[in-house]
Amino acid sequence: EHDVLALGHAGCGPSLALGLAVGARIKGDKGYFVSVIGDGSLTSGLAYEGLSNIIAQNPRNLMIILNDNGMAISQNVGWLAKWRGQWLPHLRAQLELDEDFQQFESVTEALAPKVPLGPLALSLGRGIKSAIQKTLIPEIGHFWDEMGFNYLGPVDGHNLNELIEMIALARQYSDKVPFVHVLTNKGQGWAPATEDPTYYHQPGPLKPGEEKLTYSNVFSQALLDIMQEDPSVVAISAAMLEGTELVTVKEVFPDRVFDVGICEQ
């Protein structure tokens, strides 16, 4: 009912959401569109093409939600991965969701005409609010702010009430597209998937007692043989070390196996 598109490639969500949002605006429809993108997908250059166009168009009927679980199929790689776990989500989120904090600027706007130097007082109030936010915002949040989004979060994605409140708050922003940073754990809710999120990303069917060699098993062993004979051979994976069994090869040749993240292009 709500998921308009389901695709097999990562990174294209922002572009598709922008097309839907702009199309709805042109037709006069009142729909609101949400692009949920994972931190793994943000290793794809395609994602930034879409985000850049969103900033240029600045639609008022679109929201970006970053589902940050530190994973693609396996552990995420690249610049975004280093920010994982370097902030306290609850403190920042609780402050943003606090009614008094939300009303701080509106109170100063109401008081400005009634006091001497009203515009200065309003500017000071906005500055104080902004300073508090920037003190608690993770450095990665400044990146999205500078890019041109209204960054909100990070928020605990497994706290449904808090998440709903944050999304409702984001809907109130009209000057810039809101960017809601959500922290989650891959496999949350089912112990086997939580303990081994890489395997349970897409487990294949297996009958009890049945073990067969896969194409990936054969490929990795053949590649190992080749790399042992030829030191000039390297292996490159696009966030698929496990799926291609290159994780085994990387254990033997850690400096000759490269995981470059999701590179859909």
From TrEMBL:
Which BP terms in the Gene Ontology apply to this protein? isopentenyl diphosphate biosynthetic process, methylerythritol 4-phosphate pathway; terpenoid biosynthetic process
Signal peptide positions are none
Co-factor requirement? Mg(2+)
Family annotation (SUPFAM superfamilies): Thiamin diphosphate-binding fold (THDP-binding) (SSF52518)
Location of the Transketolase-like pyrimidine-binding domain: 212-265
Its cellular-component GO annotations read:
cytosol
Q: Name one Pfam family in it.
A: DXP_synthase_N
Q: Which UniProt keywords apply?
A: Magnesium, Thiamine pyrophosphate, Transferase
- Single GO MF descriptor: 1-deoxy-D-xylulose-5-phosphate synthase activity
User: Which InterPro entries does the entry mention?
Assistant: Dxylulose-5-P_synthase (IPR005477), THDP-binding (IPR029061), Transketolase-like_Pyr-bd (IPR005475)
Q: Which Gene3D superfamilies match?
A: 3.40.50.970
Subunit record text: Homodimer.
Task: Please name the PANTHER family in this protein's record.
Answer: 1-D-DEOXYXYLULOSE 5-PHOSPHATE SYNTHASE-RELATED, 1-DEOXY-D-XYLULOSE-5-PHOSPHATE SYNTHASE, CHLOROPLASTIC
UniProt name for this protein: Transketolase-like pyrimidine-binding domain-containing protein
Q: What organism does the record attribute this protein to?
A: marine sediment metagenome
Q: What is the lineage of its organism?
A: unclassified sequences, metagenomes, ecological metagenomes
